[in-house]
Fold this sequence. Notes:
The chain has five helices and three strands, in the order E-E-E-H-H-H-H-H. By secondary structure, the protein is α+β, with helices and mostly antiparallel strands.
Amino acid sequence: MRYSRLCYITYDWQDKGQGDITMALGNERSSVQNPMIKYATDIGWQYIEPDEAIRLRAGDTGLVFRELFINQMVRLNPDFMDNILADGLIKKISGIQPNIEGNLMA
C-alpha cells in the first residue's frame, strides 16, 4: 500500500489484482455529506430524513418538494402566482434534461 499527499487529501492506492490501480477516498457519506449536513444545520437549515424527502418530492424521481414549492411560490409572488401556475413551473423544471442541452434550455 502506498500513500501520497496531494491537496490535503490522503489517497490510498490499491491494486485490485487485475493490473489496475484504483484510488479509495473513503466513504463519501462520512467525509463529505455528514460535514455538509452539520454545517447546514448549524446555520439554520432543517435536515429532512430521506424517507420524508421522498414523500415531499412525491416519489424517488421527483425533483422538488412539491407542496412546499407551490406554497412558497404563491407566498413570494402573490400578485400573479397561483397553485396552477406553480404546478406548471414544477412540470417545466422537471422536463429540463440533466445535461448541457438542458442547461441551455434553462
